[in-house]
Amino acid sequence: MKKHTTTLFRLNNLHSLKFPFKLMQLELQEIENDPALNNRNMQKVLMKIASVTSGPVAVYFKDGKKFIAVKADTEVENVEISLAPMIAKATLLPGNYDLNFNSLTSNNRELAIRFLEFAVKEHLGNHPKLWRYSAYQYFLRKPIFNEPHSQIDVFSGFNFKIVPQPDGHFYIALDLSYKYTDKKFLHEHLAGEDIEVMKKRLKGRKCLYFGGDSWYQVQIASLGKAIKEQDFALNGKKYTVLDWAMKHTKSETFNMQKHLFPDTPALIFNYPGNTSKYFNGAACLAKMLYTTADDFVNGMHNKTIQNPNNRFYYLRTFIKHNFQGIVFNGVELKVNQYPLSETLKIFPLPGLKFNNGIEMKSLVLDERYERAIEDFGKLRRANIMRNGILNKTQFNPQYLLVPDSIDFQLAKAIQSTFSKDMKLYARNFEEFTLIVYKDLKSSSAYRQYNEIKDALSRHNATHGNALFLLPDAEVESAYYIRNLHDCVKKNFYKSIKFQCASARKVASFYSGYSDRENGYIFKLNQDGLRSYRSYISNLFFEYLIVNQKWAYALSQPLNHDIYIGLDVHDHYAGFLFFYRNGEKIVFDYTEVSNRTGTFRNEKISAKVIIDKLLENLKRHIPQHAKNPNSIILLRDGRSFGEEGKAMKTVLGELAKDGLIDANKINWGIVDIHKNTAIPYRVALEKGGYNNLSNPISGTYKLFDATTGFLFTTGYPFKIPGTVQPIHITLVEGNADFESVMQDIFHQCILAFSAPDKGGSLPVVLKLIDTMIRSFAHSLTEKSLEEQEEQIFD
């Protein structure tokens, strides 16, 4: 156990506080056996009452009944909430109730959190130097980094959450955050452009809107007439956008008049996530928001990556300048300006099993541990390269597809080199069959796809795996390569699984030479061998995953014998079955009839889960996990209640077949979040002033009996910035939570695609993401043909 500085700042004087509140009696019909729907309805109720009362709300239990707590000065007596097909009603009850922080229970803790957070948000929202991005994210008004040649501005800020801790105190959990906007206002991008074209191009894009002193996020719906002409009605009166901005908008900290241009277009927008209402604004008061997914942001984003010392310095600065003077029920909250330091446990790195009986042993956590694991990643990779992969099952037929735009002698050289090099990774690999296809020179992704299909047919390639060297394309034809890549992977997946690479990139590693015996030949550039080895290593490790060949395994079984990963992309559900130490891992998937996998809906029915689990478990348990002690299902993101229902049914069926002992089996439904509402990070205290480093991989924090944070990366793996943990929650089941967390960490160490690096997710979820993205999208052969017909017509 080691001391760590955390991103938690204590609220020091809460135990002396109490506050009054009122209750609203709730009439809400719940639907039996549908907890997800009931939860969504309750959230709608809370949002509506919060909007009507303009204050904090929380579920409150009294005498075994559910009420809604609202602020003490609430005067709204009745609220009706439409929850088609039903209507919920909330009625204000007479009298006030008091909540004393000295007597909090699990039933009223949520009420305390909501009312505290409301006070903090109200304080931050009135801060003259901040703008609000979302309920828990705030940013400084002045951009950081004065880069005259940059296209973007970077805003520094933070996100926060109030969290209770086992010590009985409440803390502000805080972390840094950054937002990126265009340096130019939107009207500057519209000048000289066809407005109708720009409407289509910009629809749905998010912007930062400078509404005087109030800055906020909006989403573009359309563009209107000039702001001096675009009018709208409000409270029975008509205004133009220009008139409203000039005369009815508070603008003491932002010089609005300087930025208003009467002849520039109006901006018609909605707030993100709410398309029921639209508003009028000015394009000259909006700047486009960007994310790190936008390529040109990368350069500036790299400057925002903070090591632990810098991160905690900036966090203390934000606490000092932005979280002092918060008033709660007439009393100023005292926020500790120094973060909580606490001792955290660490799971040791697991032992690993390689080919030829080679083993990396798990080490004891003592004073020599850090030194002993320093080269863990390098040694893990070296053991694979020295001994080959652990999986010795026979390979399916292997193909190498090369465009005819590459010299045939070069194509043969690539085929020969790749076949030899692949044997270094998998000793029983035979060779690639070379298939040369006609390069149609970016004329049509659909026609190129059909050429690939014909080339495979000519070689009787009906099943197996393929390395596909994508043809070259002009920069403006990038969509062509993307469409070809997606269409080939999806439409051949059931028969031939593809891994793609760039023909141009691969060819760049070779040079041609005149040879007396063989004429003109191609060989690897000797001065570029290091780059070639690095490129091939990344490519082949990914290709082994496509072949479902696992490079190594754990040397000992996990605490729980069977793990099942579940994730949903588009309208496909992916399942990954992991047995004992991971020598047996099986991927499966199914197409879901109703489209799922959108940002807001990754729900999958219990029946789909039941069918797929029983199909695999009944086949695998007798061979790979006889009499299992536990079955744990890991969900990437949030589970919806269907998983628990499915697991109970599956356990019953397996018990009937004698495959498990119903009286002894442990089980669990576990949610894993890569990103969480709680901004929690830690840094290892190394001694001395301002001497912080990333935590040791395997460090973890239990928030309570069913939730915790796990730092899957960190020392000895080298990463830029400060390690971010995954958030783990045991949603249902009787499995021991701490031992589940340890198993999840051990799965993260099975980093098959990059053995010298750390893994952020457990392998049962990481592999689903790698495999399912090959086909979990909407581009089919037919849709590609229709798409190109529209383009070329």
Describe what you observe in this structure.
The chain starts with a strand and ends with a helix. The protein is built from 20 helices and 41 strands. The protein has a twelve-stranded mixed beta sheet, with helices on both faces. Strands 2, 9, 10, 11, 12, 13, 14, 17, 18 and 19 form a ten-stranded antiparallel beta sheet that branches. Strands 3, 4, 5, 6, 7 and 8 form a six-stranded antiparallel beta sheet that branches. The protein is an alpha+beta fold and about 800 residues long.
* Shape annotation: globular
Beta-strand percent range: 25-35%
Main structural class: alpha+beta
Q: What topology, given as strand order, has the largest sheet?
A: 34-33-32-35-36-41-40-39-22-1-37-38
* Low-pLDDT regions: 595-600, 789-793
Rg (CA only): 30 Å
Gap from first CA to last CA: 67 Å
Largest sheet: 12 strands, mixed
Average pLDDT over all residues: 91
Number of helices: 20
The level of helicity is: 25-40%
Let me know the number of strands: 41
